[in-house]
């Protein structure tokens, strides 16, 4: 069964550093998403991406965040200057029709 | 604003017992409805989804869910729980004109031998 692949599975970074989280969505999917889950809290929507542009973003997704689809297969989330409160599990998801998501297994980001 | 409520934060059941996890949503129109399961340290796996039609939906791993419009509920059920079902379960809704999933707070299921 097709999978959404995320790398790395765990990333530790120092506060203020830039991080890039990587995702390979399912190959024929057109919609891409990032969600995050702070430990013990709800899964929260960050951003959706379609047709090479952001289609929707949440209040969490401020200027520190950016997304990119640099080639035909990767979808990245960049955090420009990490803060302690950015520590969370970040999930990538993709969808072919916008209404049936497949999630990756997540990247656990720890900011120290 | 739309919201999803899972009233039970923790549930413990005995192996072989039946299970019902509750989910209520608040939204103007009937959204698309989902249940996901997350095992420790793992990603979110889709158990089942409801878009329209038959209000009783069958999913993977022997789970089913029933959509009740009058109660704005989408409760997840399993007739006989296995120890491997211990995990966190999330209900989620998607407006049928949007693309932002809203998750409930999750219910952690523990299974006693």
Description:
The complex is a heterodimer of chains A (112) and B (113). With 112 residues, chain A is mainly β. Chain A is 0% helix and 51% strand. Chain A has no helices and eleven strands. In chain A, strands 2, 4, 5, 6, 9, 10 and 11 form a seven-stranded mixed beta sheet that branches. Chain A has a four-stranded antiparallel beta sheet with strand order 1-3-8-7, with no helix packed on it. By secondary structure, chain B is mainly β. Helix content of chain B is 0%, strand content 50%. Chain B is built from no helices and twelve strands. In chain B, the strands form three sheets. In chain B, strands 2, 5, 6, 10, 11 and 12 form a six-stranded mixed beta sheet that branches. Chain B starts with a strand and ends with a strand. The chains are: A mainly beta (112), B mainly beta (113).
What keywords describe this structure?
heterodimer, A: 112 residues, mainly beta, seven-stranded mixed β-sheet, four-stranded antiparallel β-sheet, 11 strands, globular, B: 113 residues, six-stranded mixed β-sheet
Order of helices and strands of chain A: EEEEEEEEEEE
**Mean pLDDT across residues of chain A:** 92
Query: Count of DSSP E strands of chain B?
Result: 12
Q: State the end-to-end distance of chain B.
A: 41 Å
Assembly of the depicted chains: heterodimer
Please write the string of helix (H) and strand (E) elements of chain B: EEEEEEEEEEEE
Report the mean per-residue pLDDT of chain B as an integer: 92
* Structural classification of chain A: mainly beta
Report the sheet with the most strands of chain B, covering strand number, pairing sense and barrel closure: 6 strands, mixed
Low-confidence stretches of chain B: none
How would you summarize this macromolecular structure in one to three sentences?
Chain A has 112 residues and is mainly beta. Helices cover 0% and strands 51% of the residues of chain A. Chain A contains no helices and eleven strands.
């Amino acid at each position: 069964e097709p999978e959404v692949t995320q790398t790395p599975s765990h990333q530790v970074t120092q506060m203020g550093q830039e991080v890039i989280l990587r995702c390979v969505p399912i190959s024929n999917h057109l919609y891409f998403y990032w969600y995050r889950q702070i430990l013990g809290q709800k899964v929260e929507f960050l951003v959706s991406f379609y047709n090479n542009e952001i289609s929707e973003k949440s209040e969490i997704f401020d200027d520190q965040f950016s997304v990119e689809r640099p080639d035909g297969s990767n979808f990245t989330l960049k955090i420009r200057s990490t803060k302690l409160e950015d520590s969370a599990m970040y999930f990538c998801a993709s969808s072919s029709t916008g209404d049936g998501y497949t999630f990756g297994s997540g990247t656990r980001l720890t900011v120290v | 604003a739309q919201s999803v409520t899972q009233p039970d934060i923790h549930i413990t059941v005995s192996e072989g017992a039946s299970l019902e996890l509750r989910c209520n949503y608040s939204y103007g129109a009937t959204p698309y409805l989902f249940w996901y399961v997350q095992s420790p340290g793992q990603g979110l796996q889709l158990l089942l989804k409801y878009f329209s039609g038959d209000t009783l939906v069958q999913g993977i791993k022997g789970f089913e869910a029933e959509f009740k419009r009058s109660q704005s509920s989408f409760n997840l059920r399993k007739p006989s729980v296995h120890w491997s079902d211990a995990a966190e379960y999330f209900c989620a809704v998607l407006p049928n004109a949007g693309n932002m999933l809203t998750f409930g707070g999750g219910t952690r299921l523990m299974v006693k031998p």
